[in-house]
């Protein structure tokens, strides 16, 4: 079972830290508890990417 804790992603460093266990879980068989961790991390990463991309697009549009 994994010992990492799922945490909010607020910074690029948090984002990178969330990607590492996702990569590790993708490369091997894992338990149901790790499935839950994977799902939670993937959801957080997706949300962060959506927000980050939206903010960047918004800034680009305002500066045009």
Explain this structure.
This protein has 64 residues and is mostly helical. The chain has a domain at 31-64. It is built from 2 helices and no strands. The protein has helices spanning 12-26, 32-62. The model has no long low-confidence stretch (mean pLDDT 84).
Helix content: over 70%
Low-confidence regions: none
Straight-line N-to-C gap: 49 Å
- Return the string of H and E elements: HH
What fraction of the residues are assigned to beta strands by DSSP? under 5%
Oligomeric form of this entry?
single chain
Total count of strands: 0
Topology record:
Blueprint: H1 12-26, H2 32-62
In short:
With 64 residues, the chain is mainly alpha-helical. It has helices at 12-26, 32-62. The chain has a domain at 31-64.
Labels describing this entry:
64 residues, mainly alpha, elongated
């Amino acid at each position: 079972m994994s010992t990492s804790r799922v945490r909010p992603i607020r910074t690029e460093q948090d984002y990178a830290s969330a990607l590492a266990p996702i990569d590790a879980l993708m490369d091997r068989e894992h338990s149901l508890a790790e499935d839950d961790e994977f799902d939670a991390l993937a959801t957080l990463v997706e949300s962060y990417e959506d927000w980050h991309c939206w903010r960047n697009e918004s800034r680009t549009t305002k500066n045009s």
